[in-house]
Design brief:
Strand content: 25-35%
Distance between the termini: 39 Å
Shape: globular
Strand order of the largest sheet: 3-2-1-4-7-9-8
Structural class: alpha/beta
Number of helices: 5
Largest sheet: 7 strands, mixed
Order of helices and strands: HEHEEEEEHEHEEH
Number of domains: 1
CATH topology: Rossmann fold
Oligomer: single chain
CATH architecture: 3-Layer(aba) Sandwich
CATH superfamily: Vaccinia Virus protein VP39
Length: about 190
């Protein structure tokens, strides 16, 4: 297993651009890596918290109002805690994971675990914003959301030379069908 937190790349940039303009009281980034997204989210939310299995290898986030917790997904938080939960999970499908920073496990078990925790910890009517690549069976993620009365919509897509990255937003079905825009608005 890798001993370093995930370093921001094109996928993080895509997710960050989809998060731009959101605001609220509290947000959580599951698998925060080196806290790059949290630095931006802290400008938009009163409380910005990140979790990861590894400590950030940079200190850019220290003293900037960000809270960081060493934790597995969001297991240390109570249900219905955050206005926004976001994640850019390890999404590469592999049989055996040697690098938890980028490998999502067999059947993409890591992204699914992140979504389960996001659905548990997001407030009603909060939002979940996350990124997947084209290896993911989006239907499985839609079904997980639907069981909790959330509707999944695409926010952004970027084609890379070797994969397609998509940012999704999950919103409570009532607010999603009430004519709100596809882009989540937490303010």
């Amino acid at each position: 297993m890798s001993g370093e937190a995930y370093t921001s790349s094109e996928d993080s940039s895509l997710l960050r651009s989809a998060l731009h303009g959101l605001s609220g009281e509290s947000c959580l980034e599951i698998g925060a890596g080196n806290c790059g997204n949290l630095l931006e989210l802290r400008k938009l939310f009163e409380v910005a918290v990140g979790t990861d299995l590894l400590r950030p290898t940079t200190s850019d986030w220290r003293g900037k109002g960000i809270e960081f917790v060493l934790a597995d997904a969001a297991s240390c938080f109570r249900p219905d805690t955050f206005d926004l939960v976001t994640f850019n999970p390890p999404y590469l499908a592999v049989e055996v994971s040697n690098d938890r920073a980028v490998e999502g496990g067999r059947g993409l078990e890591v992204p699914k675990a992140f979504l389960r925790e996001a659905l548990r910890t997001v407030k009603q009517p909060g939002r979940i914003v996350f990124l997947l690549n084209d290896e993911a069976s989006v239907g499985e993620f839609e079904e997980m959301c639907s069981k909790r009365s959330f509707e999944l919509k695409r926010l952004a897509v970027r084609r890379m030379f070797f994969e397609e990255l998509t940012v999704y937003a999950a919103a409570p079905r009532d607010s999603a069908s009430a004519g709100r825009p596809a882009r989540p608005d937490l303010s």
